[in-house]
Design a protein that fits this description.
Radius of gyration: 17 Å
Number of domains: 1
Number of strands: 10
CATH topology: Lipocalin
CATH architecture: Beta Barrel
Strand content: over 45%
Helix content: 10-25%
Structural class: mainly beta
Length: 167
């Protein structure tokens, strides 16, 4: 009798967490949206995620592209950084990024990137395949679904918008 109750309880707790991200079905077309409409992402954001501290910056769109950077550190030690682009592609856009170790050696091969196709967008939320960005006032939450060894894990980042670049 305990097992069914535990399964139901797990589903009630896990469903809201994993519903934070959306996915494109096999063969499904990506969502429609314009990079120029994402001015609410622009700025310097800092907060927590992955068990450490992180910050992210986004510059305004130019020619259908927004450029951003991300860095993550624990105990004052840089762990990795990312170079990110939101790129317009016809009626849709996607997030394209590369990861770097502290010495700038890349995680991806030279001609490879991590790409998140668009699922959908509204005035303050972007849903990519397995990744979501949502702004509420001066706060932004990000949810990233990680798949490692066949197991899915949802990581949440919690950011506060900063007025200055910290200097």
């Amino acid at each position: 009798m305990k097992t069914p109750l535990l399964i139901i309880l797990f589903c009630l707790v896990a469903f809201p967490i994993f519903s934070q991200v959306k996915h494109l079905k096999e063969g499904e077309k990506p969502g429609i949206g314009k990079v120029e409409d994402l001015d609410w992402v622009v700025g310097y954001w800092s907060g927590t995620g992955l068990g450490g501290e992180c910050d992210e910056t986004w510059m305004p769109a130019i020619d259908g592209t927004m450029v951003g950077t991300f860095r993550f550190w624990q105990d004052g030690k840089l762990i990795f950084s990312e170079f990110m682009n939101l790129i317009q592609d016809g009626e849709t856009f996607y997030l394209k990024l590369k990861h770097f170790n502290p010495d700038l050696s890349g995680w991806e091969e030279k001609d490879e990137w991590t790409i998140f196709p668009l699922v959908g967008v509204d005035e303050n939320t972007i849903w990519f395949h397995g990744f979501t960005m949502k702004r509420e006032g001066d706060k932004m939450a990000l949810w990233l679904e990680l798949n490692e060894n066949g197991e899915k894990d949802l990581v949440e980042f919690s950011y506060q918008k900063q007025d200055l670049l910290g200097f």
